[in-house]
Amino acid sequence: SQTIHQWPATLVQPVGSPLSLECTVEGTSNPNLYWYRQAAGRGLQLLFYSVGIGQISSEVPQNLSASRPQDRQFILSSKKLLLSDSGFYLCAWTPHPGNTEAFFGQGTRLTVV
Amino acid sequence: GQQLNQSPQSMFIQEGEDVSMNCTSSSIFNTWLWYKQDPGEGPVLLIALYKAGELTSNGRLTAQFGITRKDSFLNISASIPSDVGIYFCAGRGGANNLFFGTGTRLTVIP
Q: How many CB atoms lie within 10 A of CB B38?
């Protein structure tokens, strides 16, 4: 069966520090991968999605970047965090092609101080 | 990025009551999904809809894919305390991206 792992679960980082959140999927190959951000009490905002290694689509301009160095690995990064980067970050995957349901990781609570 | 309009934003209901929430979009979608999110966790899929007009049930939950392909609704019958949480709709168009509604926060009063 397929599983998705996301870490760390919580993170407190100072303003200006770098960020690296990692997501891996097991039990499938060539998945579509997604990063979402959820502000407190709000909906999910799509940040990036990837349909293959090295292929990244960005939905909103921002202080973040994403990379997919391996088929089942998706990384969310920042060189210098801003206070506004605080939020709940969720990784998700769907089979490729992606006209099916998406499955989510447990999320990372990022607080920038 | 696109966001779907979901209503109501929040609901306070008595245990045993039925619940209805809906989602609309300005774009046509090929897939509608409904998720539930508990605090501090990722959303969990409840129901997936793939065809316009499709009506699907999962226990006490029923969801429909609107004929226009621009809307969907979710009903919960005979609510119980564990139904508490945030419910999200999500839609997928022709591309590989998946957009979410703004969420409906459900509170069930015992």
A: 12
Chain A nearest-CA distance from B25, in A, is 15
Subunit contact B96:A49, Cβ cutoff 8 A: yes
Contacts across the A-B interface (CB distance below 8 Å): 74
The pLDDT tens digits for A58-79 are 877 678 999 999 999 999 999 9
Q: What is the DSSP string of B51-103?
A: STT-EEEETTEEEEE-TTSSEEEEEE-S--GGG-EEEEEEEE-SSS-EEEB--
pLDDT tens for chain B, residues 1 to 110: 566 899 999 999 999 999 999 999 988 998 999 999 998 889 999 999 999 999 999 999 999 999 999 999 999 999 999 999 999 999 987 666 788 898 999 999 99
Contact A97 B88 (CB under 8 A): no
In which residue are the tokens 């994403």 written? A66
Distance from CA of A46 to the nearest CA of B (A): 7
Q: Are A90 and A102 in contact (CB under 8 A)?
A: no
Residues of chain A with C-beta less than 8 angstroms from the C-beta of B43: 44, 90, 104
